[in-house]
Amino acid sequence: MLHMFQKIRQSLTGNHSSSTFFQLPLFMTGNVFVCPLIFAIGFFLQALLFPIPAISQPQEIFPEGDQEYFQALLALENDKEYKKFLLESVSYADGKKVEYRDYKGVRPTGDETGAESADTRENAGHFGKPTYDALRNMDWFRKNNYQNFIRNVGQNIYPVIIASDYEPGKEGVGSSYYLYRRGHPVKTVTPTSVMYEMEKILAHIPMGVFILISPYFDNVADRPEGWEAPLIEYKQHVEHIKGLLEKSDSHHATSIRAIQMLDLVNHYLQDCIENGAGDEQSYSAFAHRIIPYVAEAMKAAVELQVQAGVRAMSQWKQELGPQEWDKLHVLIPVVWPVAEGNPRRQIFEHLMIPERAKTNIFEVHARSHDEARTTLGRIKGDSVMANLTFDKSTPFGMGSYLRLSSPTDLVQGVTAEELKKYPKPKANHLPMNTPDSD
Predict the structure, then answer these.
(1) Most CB contacts within 10 A, which of 16, 27, 68, 304?
(2) How far apart are alpha carbons 229 and 213 in whole angstroms?
(3) What mean pLDDT comes out for the span 187-192?
(4) Residue 156: partners with Cβ closer than 8 Å, 6 or more residues away
């Protein structure tokens, strides 16, 4: 069909001068309006019959990871003030000589007690041992300076709020918040009331029973002597609290619910101690009876935590003002079982614009505020470094920038490609062949 169309088109356009149509006075006089019209109609008919494929930009492909985070990160490219703020965070010298701490833990030859090097071979691959040792010493110098760099960057980012559930002496009280501002003393607030902690304690009652019973699920008939001692102690706690509630606090709805929960626990513990109960079936039956009360306690605790947290952080938001709040970074120390969807993140997501909530709130595994802020220094320092180091107009450069600015490992993509060389193992079987196997 294409060949036929080409012949027809050639016959129509190949010899304009011999065509009677093109010898009309209209064309012979060179009418500047009609000629373009005729050609436009011709192009329209061609496009209608044989449309030219649309030329479109290739879709942006991000590495594996949080795609919304990547998009929010790239959107920051248009925010000149925020880019300036990030650049200033890595420019921390402030006209002074930078002092470097010696992080002995990154030395390649172990500690000062005489531990051997990680590799004592004469040669390392095609490198001689002197070259190998020299390379490792240079890399130690780099690692040591990097530790200083990320700590200094973290200490140079303001404002920062650390929202922690694990402060010594304040565990389980519904988050303590610490505000770091440049030129201001650190502010702290633990906004939740005592009732929050009470509700949370009640919600954890089934856990308290499970961790004492579960070690003996598999030997109900032959338990060792004294196995029930922790159950007896827990039962004493339960009875003591129940007695206090009945004497002074039984009129409150929470106290009534607590007494009902404690009764269920007391009866189950007594059955375990006196009758040898306590297998997985009996525990599940007990737990299913008490869970409706647990759900009420959880809901009450969350209501108290959110109400107090939103009120306190809204006050700090007002104190900071729009410009400082826009640059706020929030660090949330976590452990893996509660790392996602925690109330602290959700409170700040509620108070921040979506773009900042994506790029400025971080769950961190840190044992101290210094570690948390050093982690922030690594996150933002790596991102600024990657932004200036890689050419983001190339796929490799864009992928490297996004990976270094996120939890996605820099070599994630290369590793995935390399693993394609290896046969996919079947379930429970190690791969028997590798690319280098005979």
Answers:
(1) 304
(2) 11
(3) 94
(4) 88, 89, 90, 92, 377
Contact (Cβ atoms closer than 8 angstroms) between residue 377 and residue 149 = yes
Separation of CA 215 from chain center: 34
The answer to whether the bond into 435 is cis (omega within 30° of 0) is no
Whether 203 and 301 have beta carbons less than 8 Å apart is answered as: yes
**Tokens representing residue 325 in the block:** 């709040």
Look-up of token digits 């996004």: 402
Q: What is the DSSP string of 45-101?
A: HHHHHSPPPP--PPPP-PPSS-HHHHHHHHHGGG-HHHHHHHHHHH---TTSPPP--
- Percent helix, strand, coil in the chain (nearest 5)? 60, 5, 35
| Phi then psi dihedrals of residue 433, to 5 deg | -120, 145
Higher pLDDT, 427 or 15: 427
Mean pLDDT of the 67-88 span: 89
Question: CA–CA separation, 380 vs 404, rounded Å?
Answer: 9
Q: Which residue has the higher pLDDT, 70 or 7?
A: 70
Report the amino acid identity of residue 334: V
Q: How many C-beta neighbours within 10 Å does residue 100 have?
A: 13
What is the per-residue pLDDT for 347? 96
Q: Is the peptide bond before 58 cis (omega within 30 degrees of 0)?
A: no
Token code pair at residue 421: 């060389």
Token reading at 398: 């864009």
* Residue 305: closest CA among 350, 275, 266, 361: 350
Is pLDDT at 238 greater than 90 in this prediction?
yes
- Please give the structure tokens belonging to residue 334: 């976590």
Q: How far apart are the first and last CA of the chain?
A: 55
Read off the pLDDT of residues 84-131 as tens digits, 9 standing for 90 and up. Answer: 998 999 999 888 888 888 887 666 654 444 444 555 555 556 678 888
pLDDT, position 27? 44
Which SS3 state, helix, strand or coil, does residue 163 take?
strand
d(CA 68, CA 74): 10
What's the CA angle centered on 231, arms 226 and 232, to 5 degrees?
80
Banded model confidence at residue 356, pLDDT cuts 50, 70, 90: very high
Q: What was the pLDDT predicted at 360?
A: 95
Where b means 16+ CB within 10 Å and e means fewer, 32-51 reads eeeeeeeeeeeeeeeeeeee
| Residue with more model confidence, 276 or 50 | 276
Rg (CA), the chain: 35
Please state, in angstroms and rounded to a whole number, the distance separating the CA atoms of residues 170 and 346.
Answer: 21
Q: Per the structure block, which two tokens stand in for 266?
A: 């007391």
DSSP 245: I
Judged against a pLDDT cut of 50, whether residue 78 lies above it is answered with yes
